[in-house]
From TrEMBL:
<dbReference type="Pfam" id="PF13469">
    <property type="entry name" value="Sulfotransfer_3"/>
</dbReference>
<dbReference type="InterPro" id="IPR027417">
    <property type="entry name" value="P-loop_NTPase"/>
</dbReference>
<protein>
    <submittedName>
        <fullName>Sulfotransferase</fullName>
    </submittedName>
</protein>
<dbReference type="InterPro" id="IPR052736">
    <property type="entry name" value="Stf3_sulfotransferase"/>
</dbReference>
Length: 437
């Protein structure tokens, strides 16, 4: 079974980089760092001169994840280099985080206003909805460099020179060079609004790891764990991010948050943010699964030479099913005054009308935010005019009938079944001419 849109090939730069890293390792020019939590923690402590990682809960998910990577992920040279670098970065930043909390007690003393949280599966339109809300300066939102580098190094001064945007820009540039398709799948930049996924990575938590590496053992383990400690740390990090902004911070303004991980963790999320208001977005599951598989493929092929598209299809069909099943159970227990449902289809047809409904739910006047929202929509449409994310379920061993059959009850509950498309007059004339040719 193959799709009409072929799977994207990774950049030749990946192969070249793998060869260079392998050569440097053979010559002992680049010492290979072991993928071992204890060894990485020792390195982080030596590098920072610190030894307090804060709540040690995160060590367990990190141990399960590193073990799964070693046994299941089939990493190439780039993959191993990126994995050890990522874990070492998290460990350093955990140490820096606790340093900031110990030396600046005012960080954790500041309360957080109840956030507005966008909830939906991966590739369901959460990014567009989140960025529309982020255009409203009455909300706070994470920026890309803050989710990639949430913790400033010791010596940083709030509101002062910050090297993190440049660091995040270099990382983004490297990823785009290794696989240019990633820039089409999820266009962003150092200062663009971004989800708080990186704050969960600080606890070695979340589907982000499953979208990067083949680690089903870690995924199954995490599905049966209580995520509350990861979300408690996320809330602490939001305070740190706000403090680091200095005079730019607006302490009485609610955060607008979103990451697909919330679909699996709504009970934990609501234990940490009990007064949050939630905006659920729903999309045709066949589109969600197909787009998710494409995103995972474009990431996984960088880190492994053995990425299997049919395995990706099977895994993300199951993962999407679990997201939706858990969301529906948790959503049914949330008071209707604290939640609203919107459809991806309606956002496409009339985003402004949908956002007016959202603002009525939030009991806010949308008028001050509309100019910035319109600018964002215009910019996004300009980007998509030349670059569109194309994918096909067939490339992943799936078809629309199978996927829609798995999610029939969900699709019927939220009217997600595809509707016949109307042809305009030009399309009808063109079709008639083809028939007569």
């Amino acid at each position: 079974m193959t799709g009409e849109n072929p799977l994207s090939a990774r950049s030749r730069l990946v192969g070249a980089a793998n060869s260079v890293l392998a050569g440097l390792n053979r010559l002992s020019v680049l010492r290979e760092t072991p993928l071992d939590v204890d060894a990485l923690a020792d390195i982080a402590c030596r590098q920072t001169g610190l030894d307090d990682f804060g709540d040690p809960w995160f060590l367990r998910p990190m141990e399960v994840l590193t073990q799964a990577i070693k046994e299941e992920a089939s990493l190439n040279e780039i993959g191993h280099f990126a994995a050890t670098g990522q874990f070492l970065k998290v460990l350093r930043e955990r140490l820096w985080t606790q340093h900031w909390f110990d030396t600046h007690e005012e960080i954790l003393a500041e309360p957080l206003a109840p956030p507005v949280i966008v909830v939906g599966p991966m590739r369901s339109g959460t990014t567009r909805l989140h960025r529309l809300l982020a255009a409203d300066d009455r909300f706070e939102h994470m920026r890309f460099f803050e989710t990639v580098c949430p913790v400033p190094a010791p010596g940083f001064r709030p509101g002062g020179r910050d090297p993190r945007p440049r660091q995040a820009g270099r990382l983004l540039s490297t990823v785009h060079k290794l696989n240019p398709r990633t820039a089409v799948v999820h266009p962003t930049g150092p200062f663009e609004p971004e989800e708080e996924l990186g704050l969960l990575v600080q606890s070695a938590w979340g589907m982000k790891h499953e979208a990067q590496w083949r680690v089903p053992t870690y995924g199954r383990w995490a599905e049966n764990e209580d995520a509350t400690p990861a979300y408690s740390h996320l809330a602490r990090l939001l305070r740190l991010v706000r403090w680091a902004r200095g005079t730019e911070a607006r302490r009485n303004r609610p955060w607008v948050l979103k990451t697909p991980q919330h679909m699996l963790d709504l009970p934990a999320l609501l234990r940490v943010f009990p007064e949050a208001r939630l905006i659920f977005i729903h999309r045709d599951p066949a589109k969600v699964v197909g787009s998710s598989c494409s995103l995972v493929w474009n990431q996984m092929t960088i880190h492994s030479d053995h990425a299997d598209p049919h395995w990706i299809g099977e895994h993300w069909l199951d993962k999407t099913g679990l997201q939706i099943d858990r969301m529906q159970v948790a959503r049914s227990r949330i008071h209707p005054r604290r939640r609203i449902d919107v459809l991806y289809r309606d956002m496409d047809a009339n985003w402004e009308g949908v956002m007016r409904e959202v603002y009525r739910f939030l009991e806010m006047d949308i008028t001050p935010a509309l100019p910035a929202m319109r600018r964002y929509v215009g910019k996004a449409r300009s980007q998509h005019r030349w670059q569109r994310h194309r994918y096909d379920l067939g490339n992943f061993g799936l078809d629309q009938q199978t996927v829609r059959g798995r999610f029939e009850r969900y699709a019927n509950a939220f009217d997600l079944q595809p509707r016949p498309q109307r042809q305009d007059s030009k399309a009808i004339v063109a079709s008639a001419r083809r028939a007569l040719a």
